[in-house]
């Protein structure tokens, strides 16, 4: 029997910081692990089309690759990191599936319509939507959170979910799946991420409400709540010192790699979860939360 290569996630990271969000995956050390070379798809998503926002890097890239291995074609809206987005395209091409990039700003409603129109033009249908983009700007006090920061954080993290869901809804059919990325901070809070945590709580409520709204149409809506995950968001928002100890405070003692979250999205996107809706899957390294 051929022995599989075991992915060994790092337990610590060198201190580093990037000045601008969303950050560059190519410049991270080490680079996030977004693909498991031993993952063999079994056709769970054959012939489907998935829109994965933020699929240029991190969790989104890992999800896009796993979906492609399961037989889906992918549309990736991305904000600015073209080299990372090009990597996603290259990795998906090796699976034999297609990937289309859409450079846009999902804080704007017309960008969501642009993404969906591209998906329909290139693939003729949309079956899965993954709302996955986010920003975070740590502040020591609510007194330091400006109106501009608050607006930008909510527009990126929450409004984009509304806009993408609204734009794609006319094209979704019975059996379609919407998956939103929330966060452990929605449940346990974070003293320096007050506005970010609030957006993630909003996404939980949005997920539950949309699941109820769309149940009669056979469209399922769920969410994934990650704990610490090694992505460009981390090195572009936290200080060098915070990056150096990132993920150490969870029971498993380390941050996740994006590839470790992708199977949950595959499950929620496929018929395997046909009786699952309105739920939040917690993938957080052992943190106990109350749903």
Describe the structure.
There is one protein chain. The protein is of the alpha/beta class. It has one domain (49-283): Rossmann fold. The protein is built from nine helices and seven strands; from the N terminus they run E-H-E-H-E-H-E-H-E-H-H-E-H-H-H-E. The protein has a seven-stranded parallel β-sheet, sandwiched between helices. Helix 1 (58-69) packs parallel to helix 2, helix 3 (109-123) runs parallel beside helix 4 and helix 4 (147-168) runs parallel beside helix 6 (194-214). The N and C termini lie far apart (42 Å). 48% of the residues are buried.
Specify the structural class: alpha/beta
Multimeric organization: single chain
Radius of gyration: 18 Å
What's the CATH first level?
Answer: Alpha Beta
Strand order of the largest sheet: 3-2-1-4-5-6-7
| H/E series | EHEHEHEHEHHEHHHE
Considering DSSP H and I runs of 4 or more, what fraction of the residues is helical? Answer: 25-40%
How does CATH name the architecture?
3-Layer(aba) Sandwich
Instruction: Tell me the fraction of residues in β-strands, as a range.
Output: 5-15%
- Tell me the name of the CATH homologous superfamily: NAD(P)-binding Rossmann-like Domain
- Helix tally equals 9
Major sheet description: 7 strands, parallel
Low-confidence stretches: 1-5
Could you name the CATH topology? Rossmann fold
Terminal residue distance: 42 Å
**Number of domain units:** 1
């Amino acid at each position: 029997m051929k022995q599989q290569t075991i992915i060994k996630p790092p337990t610590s990271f060198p201190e580093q910081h990037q000045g601008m969000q969303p950050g560059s995956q190519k410049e991270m050390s080490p680079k996030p692990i977004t693909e498991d070379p031993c993952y063999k798809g079994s056709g769970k998503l054959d012939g489907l089309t998935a829109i994965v926002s933020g699929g240029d890097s991190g969790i989104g890239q890992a999800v896009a690759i796993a979906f492609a291995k399961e037989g889906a074609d992918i549309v990736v809206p991305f904000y600015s990191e073209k080299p990372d987005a090009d990597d996603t395209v290259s990795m998906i091409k090796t699976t034999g599936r297609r990937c289309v990039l859409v450079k846009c700003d999902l804080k704007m409603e017309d960008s969501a319509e642009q993404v969906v129109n591209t998906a329909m033009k290139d693939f003729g249908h949309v079956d899965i939507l993954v709302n996955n983009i986010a920003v975070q700007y740590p502040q020591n006090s609510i007194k330091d959170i400006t109106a501009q920061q608050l607006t930008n954080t909510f527009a990126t993290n929450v409004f984009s979910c509304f806009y993408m869901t609204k734009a794609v809804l006319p094209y979704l059919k019975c059996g379609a799946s919407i998956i939103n990325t929330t966060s452990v901070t929605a449940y346990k809070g974070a003293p320096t991420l007050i506005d970010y945590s609030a957006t993630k709580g909003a996404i939980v409520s949005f997920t539950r409400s949309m699941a109820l709204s769309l149940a009669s149409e056979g469209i399922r809506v769920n969410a994934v709540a990650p704990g610490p995950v090694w992505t460009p968001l981390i090195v572009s928002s936290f200080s060098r010192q915070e990056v150096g100890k990132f993920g150490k405070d969870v029971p498993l003692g380390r941050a996740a790699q994006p590839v470790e979250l992708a199977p949950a999205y595959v499950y929620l996107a496929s018929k395997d979860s046909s009786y699952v809706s309105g739920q939040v899957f917690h993938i957080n390294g052992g943190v106990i939360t109350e749903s």
